Amino acid sequence: MEYRKEVDGLRAIAVIPVILFHAGINFFEGGFVGVDIFFVISGYLITSLILSEKSKGVFKLSNFYERRARRILPALFTVMLFSIPFSYFLMMPNQLLDFSESILAVTFFSSNILFWTETNYFSAAAELKPLLHTWSLAVEEQFYILFPLFIILTWKIGKQNIFRLILIFLIFSFLLSEWVYRFSPTANFFLAPTRAWELLIGSVAAFYLIKNKPVITKSKEHLATIGFVLILFSIFSFNANTPFPGVYSLVPVLGTLLIILYSSSNTFIGKFLSFNFIVGIGLISYSAYLWHQPFLAFSRLYFHETLSQSFLLIICIISFVFAYFSWIMIEKPYRNRQKISKRFLIFSIIPCVFVFITFSTIGIKSQGFIDNKLTMEDQEYLKNYKGLELSKAEYREECNFYEQGQNIDPSCYKEIPSKENVLIWGDSHAQAIGPGLRHHFNKKYNFMQVATSSCPPQLINKQYTEFSNSCSRSNAFALSLIEKMDIQYVIMAQRKDHLKTNWKEISDYLKENNVKNILVLGPAPTWVQTLPNIVSYYGLYKKQQETSTSIGLNKTVQEIDSKFAATLSLNEDIIFLSLINILCKEECLYKIKGAPAEDNLTQVDKSHLSIRGSRLVAQDLFKGIFN
């Protein structure tokens, strides 16, 4: 199989945006498409290799699997071994439990399935998972196991028929992806059946180029340029709300396909991708991909705060330095059969697998080494803390379309003639303010509630998450109430993306429907771990007189609150209410003095108000509004 420098250069174009995306660098919100580029490249290279060797009659399945093991496992296992001690010392027990599960899943090529069950790839919690990025390796590994078997079993029917079968599987996988994202975007993102079509696009390229030796004319060269533009467009214009994968992922996938088909060392794009520096980054791209996420996760865990972009860029550069030495000292030797024998390879892998299984088993059975990480007193505090269940009981889940399905309880929107109607609208943060409002102001005001998990107030659904369908129903129902009923006040709250919501559009709509008072809550204080875990882990519950802390506080939320306040101040129809101003000064209030220890925290997790927190905030925020 002929070596193509521009394909290694294309790896660089894939890995850089992925790393910058994981680092949270501005303008790279679509950097996750780098994984899609990798999938197409992998499909192309693996299929080309198999077809070439099968045609010559020299293909052996055992040799193929050995090559994949040499390529993937030594560097991957090195990163996993590196991650274990850092995770042990930097993580809380619940995080260590998750990490132990991920070590086991990575070992058995199934981390994509694990992360599907526990993680939204775009969530803040995902930033603290050192092995999150291995989901894509799991997808590729599953492809590497099955695809050569498919070729072997179908070889006798001829390449043309194999190609047709691949096209059928490709179309089925694509249509499956387009269907699944509508009700389970996380499954769509992580699982191999909805990702297989991207790898098979690469296979299509391999079949085409084996049959049609490329003759690059001027017009065909332009196709490679268009492909490059498509990749850049997706990197800089896509974001977490883009339905993905599916139709939108055709942009980077087809862009990659065009470059593979219509670039060479003699074309403009081919020459650019063949620059030694870019090829060099491509050669170390696998190691760079492996190292960057642990470095980013451990940095965030160590500092317990949101890191600056300049610092994160330094971490990215360090990842590439480690990648270079990893490529020189691990990847290259292990890929060379003359230096590392098959016997040595096997006896390198077996002890690592033993370590991973042992660590994972102990970590899972011990609930994240909880006895080593927390004293019995700490554990007792966590065991006795009841704030979450007490608060959830008053959040009114019967008004949550995600929990209730097609309809919410009629009590959520029942009118009371003797009281003024107030609509609480938004996501779970709108639910969280409800207990305080009802406690203090229920005598004169009727608090209706349409608040659904992960559903910010919108006139049109622009999100594609696990909650998309329930969000559409929730927001549509809230709008119908606003249009049909005499609602004097609308209170809106959401967990994140405050600056992305079109508040002008919403406020204009509400004014048109005779809503006289439009109230918007700013973000709540946000912690890098759940507040009860922070209080337990750092022994804050022992400090009887202390009620505020900055330990584990995400300080960027305060900056967002200030920007949000400035933005809404330009809209005279909206009253902005800052939770940050009530709960935070230099530090944030985490404990309510005099309350029982099992229910004395202001927040029950990373950001949701407890009942006591809700009552405290509502009394201060709304006393001048509801009198």
List keywords for this structure.
mainly alpha; 60% helix; 7 strands; 627 residues
Write the layout of secondary structure elements.
Blueprint: H1 5-23, H2 34-56, H3 61-90, H4 93-107, H5 111-118, H6 134-154, H7 159-180, H8 185-190, H9 196-211, H10 218-237, H11 250-262, H12 268-273, H13 276-283, H14 285-303, H15 309-335, H16 342-365, H17 370-373, H18 376-384, H19 387-392, H20 401-404, E1 420-426, H21 428-441, E2 445-451, H22 468-484, E3 487-493, H23 503-512, E4 517-521, H24 531-537, E5 548-549, H25 556-568, E6 574-577, H26 579-583, E7 588-589, H27 611-622
Parallel strand pairs: 1-2, 1-3, 3-4, 4-6
Antiparallel strand pairs: 5-7
Helix pairs in contact: 1-2, 1-13, 1-14, 2-6, 2-9, 2-11, 3-4, 3-6, 3-14, 3-15, 3-16, 4-5, 4-16, 5-6, 7-9, 9-11, 10-11, 14-15, 18-24, 21-27
Structure notes:
The protein has 27 helices and 7 strands. Strand 1, helix 21 and strand 2 form a beta-alpha-beta unit. The longest helix is centred in the N-terminal third of the chain and has 30 residues, at 61-90. Helices cover 60% and strands 5% of the residues. It is mainly alpha-helical. Helix 2 (34-56) runs parallel beside helix 6 (134-154). It has helices spanning 5-23, 34-56, 61-90, 93-107, 111-118, 134-154, 159-180, 185-190, 196-211, 218-237, 250-262, 268-273, 276-283, 285-303, 309-335, 342-365, 370-373, 376-384, 387-392, 401-404, 428-441, 468-484, 503-512, 531-537, 556-568, 579-583, 611-622, and strands at 420-426, 445-451, 487-493, 517-521, 548-549, 574-577, 588-589. The model has no long low-confidence stretch (mean pLDDT 91). Strands 2-1-3-4-6 form a 5-stranded parallel beta sheet, with helices on both faces. A two-stranded antiparallel ribbon has the order 5-7.
